[in-house]
Specification:
Number of helices: 6
Order of helices and strands: HEEEEEEEEEEEEHHEEHEEEEHH
CATH superfamily of the largest domain: Naphthalene 1,2-dioxygenase Alpha Subunit, Chain A, domain 1
Number of strands: 18
CATH architecture of the largest domain: Alpha-Beta Complex
CATH class of the largest domain: Alpha Beta
Helix content: 10-25%
Shape: globular
Oligomer: single chain
Number of domains: 2
Length: 339
């Protein structure tokens, strides 16, 4: 079925979805600004370490809360007129009126509907989301996590997810890193829809140059690998690589934060149990190179991803990215219809 969603409805639906807004390490006890869908948000941690997220706007004279400070008592102090706000967002003191003066009931901050942390990323939903935050598989202590530096770029978030799920571009865009002519043909995927996205899996043979067992003569160069893509609307996906012969798992978490206009922030996290810490640092650097290869093209694409399936030409090699459009269109439409 072809689904089309107009821009106004799509934006409304996106406001009720989960988005990455910062690395966990970027949010401390003092407020910091994060842009999401044309709106600024102020983020900081309370005394328990939980992330607080409020619209970055004082209700008095629109001063940014991110220019204020959080006191030892946990109250946020607006840097313009010193108004104080408690953890709930309610104003507790207006210095110009005196300590015992009543505070207007409307003097409160606009809180995000939901905030969560997962995979080293802070996730925020401006409006009430229909589902929980993106779920990343639980991993044991043998797994190591590597964070790429977030990259800000003038790109379309939908096209970035399209790129992540599209394997047909590997031989052409990633010829300097991992692409090869032998990988030009696209494997068939077993795909099933989830309540809020989809999972697609395939198994294939590949040249495992990272496996030390190859050099030691323990295993052949060409080995079996299972690839599992999981898409979580609107702009998050994971790729899980299970090395069936050499053993080990490599998970790539990919998420895009739509900030202002076409300005986006791209997050990538690696979770692996087959590398040493030193090898993981090399893997992070390698993935950073892969991302930069993708961005060379994505920065040149001026179009936005259209959810109407009749707008572009598709082939059977585009099965995952076609399903991306369907799942995103349905997620946005369902949310809008529920309001």
């Amino acid at each position: 079925m072809t689904l089309g969603v107009d821009a106004t409805a799509q934006r409304e639906g996106l406001l009720h979805a989960w988005h990455p807004v910062a690395l966990s390490a970027e949010v401390g006890c003092q407020p910091t600004k994060a842009w999401l869908l044309e709106q600024p948000w102020a983020l900081w941690r309370d005394a328990s370490g939980a992330v607080c997220a409020f619209r970055d706007r004082c209700p008095h004279r629109c001063a940014p809360l991110s220019a204020g400070s959080v006191s030892a008592s946990g109250e946020l102090h607006c840097g313009y007129h010193g108004w104080r706000f408690g953890p709930s967002g309610a104003c507790t003191l207006i210095p110009a009126l005196g300590v015992h003066a009543p505070v207007p009931s409307r003097a409160r901050l606009h809180a995000a509907a939901a905030v969560a942390e997962c995979a080293g990323i802070v996730w925020l939903a401006p409006g009430r989301p229909p589902n929980g935050p993106p779920t990343i598989d639980a991993f044991g202590g043998e797994f190591l996590t590597g964070l790429l530096d977030p990259v800000e770029a003038d790109v379309d978030p939908g096209m970035m997810l399209d790129n992540f799920l599209d394997v047909a571009h590997f031989p052409f865009i990633h010829a300097e890193t991992f692409g090869s002519e032998q990988s030009a043909a696209v494997d068939g995927y077993h795909l099933h829809r989830t309540k809020h996205g989809f999972v697609a899996t395939t198994e294939h043979e590949f040249a495992n140059h990272e496996d030390p067992g190859v050099a030691a003569g323990l295993r052949p160069l060409v080995q079996r690998r299972r690839m599992t893509y999981t898409y979580m609307p609107p702009y998050t996906a994971t790729l899980r690589l299970d090395y069936l012969d050499a053993g080990g798992t490599n998970v790539i978490v990919f998420a895009v934060q739509p900030q202002r206009g076409r300005q986006c922030r791209v997050y990538t996290v690696l979770v692996r149990n087959d590398l040493t810490p030193a090898q993981l640092r090399d893997a992070v650097a390698f993935e950073q190179r892969v991302l930069e290869e993708d961005l060379v093209v994505q920065r040149r694409i001026s179009a936005t991803m259209v959810l109407d399936l009749t707008a572009d030409v598709h082939t059977r090699a585009d099965r995952l990215t076609i399903e991306l459009r369907r799942a995103l269109a349905e997620a946005v439409s369902v949310r809008v219809a529920a309001e």
